[in-house]
Amino acid sequence: MRILFLNPPSLNKIIYMKEIGRCGRKAVAGEFWPQTGLAYLAAVASSKGHIVRIIDGMVGSIAVKEMMSLIESFCPELIVIITTTPTFNNDTNIVKIIKGRFNLVVGFVGTHVSSLPEESLMVSQADFVFVNECEETLVELINNLDEYWGGIKGLSFRDKNGEIRHNIDRPFIEDLDSLPYPARDLLPNQKYRIPFTKGNPFATIIPSRGCPFHCIFCRAGKVWNKAVRYRSPANVFEEIEILVNKYDIKDFAFMTDSFTMNRSWAMELCEKICINGLDVRWFCNSRVDSIDREMLELMKRAGCVLVSYGIESGDQSILDNSRKQITLEESVKAIRFTNEAGIISFAYFIFGLPGETHDTINKTIKFAKTLNARYVNFHIATPFPGTEFYDMAKKKNWLVSSNWDDYEEEGSAVIQTEVLSPDELVAAQKMAMRTFYLRPGTILNELRSINGINDLVSKLKAVKALIKNF
User: Fold this and answer.
1) Alpha-carbon distance 397 to 198, whole Å?
2) pLDDT tens, residue by residue, 322-335
């Protein structure tokens, strides 16, 4: 069977960062994000003997006409499309265009359709949506493409009579090492860029799946469950070696909600990198309550150049309202330890969580400036479907938009709280970004950090994109 995995082009030319287990957001600094989740699905299908291809329409701004030409030349029998909340309308239009010309099976994968399978099928021409983790579901669908799909776990679909059916959930994969490595040979690897890699291409590695925490605004556990499942350090290390030796990619990001959550696992992987002398540079996400000096020092020796932390707020009551389960003191300590280890610290904040006021916004901005993180980003609280925050916002009548295009954390607000309007939230975000990055000391430190022409060009592009957005 011929199977196409598609990251659709953006009809409005806006580039989005998309991954199967993520909500998706606009690229704010010129990022082009790898499609590792689709590459996993492509590798699974290929391992069963099928002919597969990936089209990443976000890279190079592929036009619809070009996409249709590529589909026609490949002649697939099945197309799997990655979608997210802010791109769902766009991706639905892409399905309509494809269905208007080709008679083939088309379906969605991603957090949005996992959270809203009924609505996703009702408002689109998709034949099916994958619900939650779907490698095994994909294999079963391929094997039964021309049959009735009623017995395929983890699938919602439209039957031959047009009725929408929801099958029971599929158990999650226990042994992630059993999955083949992503089919990166099908991706335009040299085109994936991010400012922190000095102009070099980068890849993403998914070392674990699942998140055990209960932050009301996050749906990290929706697709991959709350229970955390890890690939073995040896399995992850082998993938790193493949990136270096086969693809000549030495910069990568670990796409997991907290790389340091399992301390012994993280330490073992870092030790493998050090012992084998791999010349790599990588960044990861962490929680401020799961980091220490010894771990950071080993991470630095293993090539870690940046750690991102979800700080969220400078007000403890907002953190508590959001069930973040961290303290301001832990955030201060984590950023200090990271800086002292010689690793770049990146702090993420969110405006508009329950309890937010003008005073707490100002408190957060002040906290961000004194925290001494190298980089920050201020998001607007967005109630993505599948989160407790979404249910809360609906119950409190906070939602001011039902247009999924607006569900974007960068420069768009879809909630109005008892205290703050959408316009006030957007204004706060822009003001926070300006006041943080336009400080003379921040600008001088960034100029001092430039290392070579490629780094300069990369950062100039990032600055241009940031100015455009904020």
Assistant:
1) 45
2) 999 999 999 999 99
